[in-house]
């Protein structure tokens, strides 16, 4: 089985895995980083989103062999202490209900704001449309993104 | 240590604890529910037999007005306490949450109730999740009753603890307790200066008799209740630290995926070839369970690949060709057809499909059978049912721990995921996490029951219409957020609009007359209509619709939906205005969040997704064919709370039932097209 050197949240990990093993399962089962969530396994819901070189990527359909030396950021590494503006906005706007989808929501929002520091509702809708929430926290996600944009 | 002192009213008990501190155990009488919670709507576990006809009855208006009966505690012969609150030497309050958290904010609400009466700062509150134990009474979380059922008792526990701390201080100072008061975390001497921290008093307090007749605060004195405290778990959620069932990691844990018969019922696995599964790297074992086959591997991905590689032969059984078309035709055939009623009446047939839960965290369960015991970690709404399932599967005493739940909505009241995990752990003699894929979850659900409803009502005066209703068969069904209330509200609130239209009356006016003996109904209907600007003109292609429902008869909700429909029949829900009367509000922001969430849930059912049967199987397998609402489809939602001093009633499910009918009524207003089934699709509306 091949070995891969991965840079995750600033730390180098060496993992032995099949080349097609999705990054999601490498994170959750080989590295014990369970903040990134499994929900659909088919790139349809966004719960598994990580940032790879700043881009939002669905880790459930990303083979570990494709990551190479690009830096990966998971929810655990977004900030040392939960003080990223998006995390703070999520708390101030009382976004979470069950919370399962929120790591994916937050990382997608981070990526959106990096590219578009002051998005409209329509732009938020477009950027986040594939990140699903069954508890229905969407209105608060919109508000939190606006808030993070203002407070950045 | 004066352990096991029972006070005169016999519902609080002082418990000694090895670590010291003040530990109060509260008996909560789960047996005597207030009369209001007995609903005449379809009960939680209802599964109709083929051909059965039900009459949908709404409770008469006067019954809905009864105040919540004061809970007289009726003690069984050997009662045992079932809520624990603890104040320790650092002055930290720990509340043991005996109901499951799935985003509805119950852990936070319970802690708020205790902390309010104890008089302690919120940052000094901790929450622990109860393991399954009969000492906690009924731990099932469902029916939106957690706050309403325990509002008085949890507050009494907090108030009693506060009084004991006051009594301890009074004893220490040698003053009258009546002259002391508290500020958060401190008892204040009658002189207004000296103070003792709770942490310094707990050992003394634990020696005292339980006071009786302790008064709870008036609402005017509340510091925490009625405020917008966010979920206690939220800081951990946004940093990825929360542990859901699927995140449980035990030393040496194996991962498993299970092959189950895909036929909805009546089929079985007859044979399997395991060689292809065993060839997958990381797969360790293939294990036959009762009518299932488990593939055990070193990681989830290998387990899933291994399971998918199994060559399975099925005996498909009698439902092999079953389809939704068959089920609906059968149901329709048992009811009159629309258009057969007499003059002066109107009739109509309404339909709803099977609905899936589609929780973001799929079903899963972790089990470890070892040393004569079965331990289960299950994100469950029914810890004690899981405990029983583990015992039945293994024959061993079973302990159940409840991690956070990534969405419950009634699916996690079942214990199926626990039975198979426990049996598997016993079979392989190792800890194992059974992972369900999205397709497993979608196809092995306990669906919301389908329904065909025949309504027939005279038009002489506005009166609540009744329906005859037939469900499906063969498809496993179970509780789904708002259960039979969803079904009832769909047909009733749409048909009321038909009655109004046939009477040449405005739907709002018609309802104000229909519900005139129900002030709380009228209250929310008027509030929602006013805030929505009912009656103000809308451009062509746009419409407003309203619907009212009191879920379980206890919480009154009215939605006004505003939609626009384009030339291709595509519906956009622009705005939903919601008015809710849930009695006294424990946490206003959480009520709003639950209404928003209930509306989103209802919109998915109204416009987007359904579970259908073909060839005896559920057709849907992932979000592409069970599309739940997305953020770019999210309307603006405004929630208005009616101020009330009635005991708090539930909120978790209550936002759901009026949603689909409000949307259907709005679509009629916008297009003149009456659609009597959900989901409503563009092809239903294209001219």
Question: What characteristics describe this protein?
Answer:
heterodimer; A: 152 residues; alpha+beta; 3-stranded antiparallel beta sheet; two-stranded antiparallel sheet; B: 687 residues; 7-stranded mixed beta sheet; 6-stranded mixed beta sheet; 17 helices; 22% strand; flat; disordered N terminus
Description:
The complex is a heterodimer of chains A (152) and B (687). Chain A contains 5 helices and 5 strands; from the N terminus they run E-E-H-E-E-E-H-H-H-H. With 152 residues, chain A is α+β, with helices and mostly antiparallel strands. In chain A, the strands form 2 sheets. A 3-stranded antiparallel β-sheet of chain A has the order 4-3-5, with helices on one face. Chain A has a two-stranded antiparallel ribbon with strand order 1-2. The mean pLDDT of chain A is 97. Chain B has a 7-stranded mixed β-sheet. In chain B, strands 1-2-3-5-6-7 form a 6-stranded mixed β-sheet. In chain B, strands 4-22-21-16 form a 4-stranded antiparallel β-sheet, with helices on both faces. In chain B, helix 9 links the parallel strand 18 and strand 19. The longest helix of chain B is centred in the N-terminal third of the chain and has 28 residues. The N terminus of chain B is likely disordered. The interface between A and B is large, with 59 and 63 residues.
Q: Topology, pairings included?
A:
The complex is a heterodimer of chains A (152) and B (687).
Chain A: E1 3-8, E2 11-16, H1 23-30, E3 49-52, E4 55-58, E5 72-73, H2 85-92, H3 102-115, H4 121-128, H5 138-151
Antiparallel strand pairs in A: 1-2, 3-4, 3-5
Helix pairs in contact in A: 2-5
Chain B: E1 5-6, E2 12-15, E3 22-26, E4 54-55, H1 61-64, E5 83-87, E6 93-97, H2 106-118, E7 125-129, H3 146-173, E8 181-183, E9 186-188, E10 195-197, H4 198-205, H5 234-237, E11 254-260, E12 268-273, H6 275-278, E13 283-289, E14 292-297, H7 300-309, E15 311-315, H8 324-333, E16 345-352, E17 364-370, E18 373-377, H9 383-394, E19 398-401, H10 416-428, E20 432-435, H11 438-443, E21 451-458, E22 467-470, H12 483-502, H13 507-514, H14 519-532, E23 542-551, E24 555-565, E25 571-581, H15 588-607, E26 613-614, E27 617-618, E28 636-641, H16 659-671, H17 682-685
């Amino acid at each position: 089985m091949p070995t891969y050197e991965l840079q995750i949240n600033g730390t180098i990990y060496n993992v032995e895995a099949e080349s097609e093993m999705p990054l999601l399962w490498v994170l959750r089962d080989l590295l014990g980083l369970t903040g990134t969530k499994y929900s659909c396994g088919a790139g349809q819901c966004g719960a598994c989103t990580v940032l790879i070189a700043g881009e939002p990527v669905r880790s459930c359909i990303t083979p570990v062999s494709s990551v190479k030396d690009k830096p990966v950021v998971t929810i655990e590494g977004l900030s040392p202490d939960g003080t990223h503006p998006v995390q703070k906005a999520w708390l101030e706007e009382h976004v979470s209900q069950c919370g399962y989808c929120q790591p994916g929501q937050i990382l997608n929002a981070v990526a959106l704001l990096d590219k578009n520091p002051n998005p409209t509702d329509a732009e938020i809708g477009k950027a986040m449309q594939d990140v699903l929430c069954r508890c229905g926290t969407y209105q608060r996600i919109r508000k939190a993104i606006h808030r993070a944009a203002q407070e950045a | 240590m004066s352990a096991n002192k029972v006070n005169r009213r016999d519902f609080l008990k002082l418990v000694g604890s090895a670590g010291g501190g003040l530990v109060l155990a509260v008996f909560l009488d789960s047996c005597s529910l207030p009369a209001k919670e007995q609903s005449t709507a379809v009960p939680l576990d209802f599964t109709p037999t083929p051909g059965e006809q039900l009459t949908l009855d709404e409770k008469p208006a006067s019954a809905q007005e009864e105040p919540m009966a004061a809970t007289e505690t009726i003690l069984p012969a050997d009662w045992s306490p079932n809520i624990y609150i603890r104040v320790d030497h650092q002055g930290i309050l720990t509340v043991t949450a005996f109901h499951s958290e799935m985003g509805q904010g119950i852990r936070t609400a319970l802690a708020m109730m205790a902390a309010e009466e104890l008089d302690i700062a919120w940052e000094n509150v901790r929450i622990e999740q109860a393991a399954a134990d009969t000492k906690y009474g009924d731990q099932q979380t469902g029916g939106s009753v957690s706050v309403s059922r325990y509002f008085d008792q949890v507050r009494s526990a907090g108030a009693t603890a506060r009084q004991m701390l006051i009594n301890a201080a009074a004893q220490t100072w040698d003053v009258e307790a009546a002259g002391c008061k508290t500020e958060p975390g401190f008892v204040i001497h009658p002189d207004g200066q000296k103070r003792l921290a709770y942490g310094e008093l707990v050992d003394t307090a634990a020696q005292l008799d339980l006071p009786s007749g302790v008064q709870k605060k008036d609402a005017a004195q509340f510091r925490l209740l009625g405020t917008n405290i966010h979920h206690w778990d939220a800081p951990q959620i946004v940093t990825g630290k929360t542990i859901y069932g699927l995140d449980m990691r035990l030393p040496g844990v194996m991962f498993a995926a299970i092959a189950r018969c895909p036929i909805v019922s009546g089929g079985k696995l007859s044979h399997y070839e395991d060689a292809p599964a065993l060839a997958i790297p990381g797969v360790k074992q293939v294990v036959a369970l009762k009518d299932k086959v488990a593939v055990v591997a070193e990681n989830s991905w290998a387990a899933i690949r291994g399971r998918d590689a199994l060559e399975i032969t099925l005996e498909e059984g009698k439902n092999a060709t079953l389809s939704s078309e068959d089920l609906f035709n059968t149901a329709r055939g048992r009811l009159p057809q629309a258009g057969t009623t007499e003059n002066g009446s109107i009739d109509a047939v309404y339909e709803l499909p099977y609905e899936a839960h589609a929780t973001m965290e799929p079903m899963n369960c972790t089990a470890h059978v070892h040393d004569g015991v079965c331990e289960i970690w299950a994100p469950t709404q029914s810890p004690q049912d899981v405990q029983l399932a583990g015992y039945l599967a293994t024959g061993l005493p079973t302990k159940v721990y409840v991690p956070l739940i990534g969405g419950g909505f009634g699916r996690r009241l079942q214990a199926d995921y626990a039975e198979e995990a426990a049996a598997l752990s016993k079979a392989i003699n190792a800890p194992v996490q059974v992972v369900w894929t999205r397709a497993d979850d979608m196809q092995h659900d306990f669906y919301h029951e389908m329904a065909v409803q025949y309504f027939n009502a005279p038009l002489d005066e506005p009166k609540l219409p009744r329906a005859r209703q037939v469900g499906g068969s063969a498809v496993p069904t179970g509780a789904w957020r708002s259960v039979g209330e969803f079904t009832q509200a769909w047909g009733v609130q749409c048909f009321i609009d038909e009655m109004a239209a046939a009477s040449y009356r405005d739907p709002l006016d018609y309802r104000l007359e229909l519900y005139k003996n129900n002030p709380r109904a009228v209250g929310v209907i008027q509030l929602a209509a006013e805030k929505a600007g009912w009656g103000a003109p809308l451009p062509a292609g746009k419409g407003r619709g309203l619907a009212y429902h009191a879920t379980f008869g206890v919480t009154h909700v009215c939605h006004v939906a505003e939609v626009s429909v384009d030339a291709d029949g595509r519906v956009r829900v622009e705005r939903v205005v919601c008015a809710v009367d849930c009695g006294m509000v424990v946490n206003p922001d959480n009520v709003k969040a639950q209404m928003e969430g209930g509306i989103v849930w209802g919109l998915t059912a109204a416009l987007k997704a359904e579970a259908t049967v073909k060839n005896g199987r559920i057709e849907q397998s992932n979000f592409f064919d069970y599309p739940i609402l997305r953020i770019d489809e999210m309307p603006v939602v405004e929630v208005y709370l009616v101020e009330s001093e009635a005991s708090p009633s539930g909120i978790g499910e209550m936002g759901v039932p009026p949603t689909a009918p409000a949307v259907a009524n709005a679509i009629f207003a916008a297009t003149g097209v009456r659609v009597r089934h959900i989901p409503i699709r563009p092809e239903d509306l294209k001219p």
